[in-house]
Amino acid sequence: MEIIAREAAFEQEFLKRRQLEGIQQAKDNGKYSGRKRIMPEEKLFEMVYMKWVAGEISSKGAMKILGLKPNTFYRRIKEYRENNSIIDFGI
Description:
- The chain is mainly alpha-helical.
- It has two domains: about 1-35; about 40-85.
- It has helices spanning about 1-30, 40-55, 60-65, 70-85.
- The termini are far apart.
């Protein structure tokens, strides 16, 4: 049984390596660019962000307006704060 498990793990690693090689080859040929980044319009994001920080809207309300899922919403907030030198007060 242990031999079968080792063989399966080896096969899985081999397939993963081949997949990564194929992706790299496609990138080198300019045929693979990955998933497009989800980013709402900058002015809309700033407006919603300011309302969210002021407590005028909830985070769920902000996500609904922007059409973002929680992970993406908080990632964009982190990026916005880093790029605009906004101090994070734990909000």
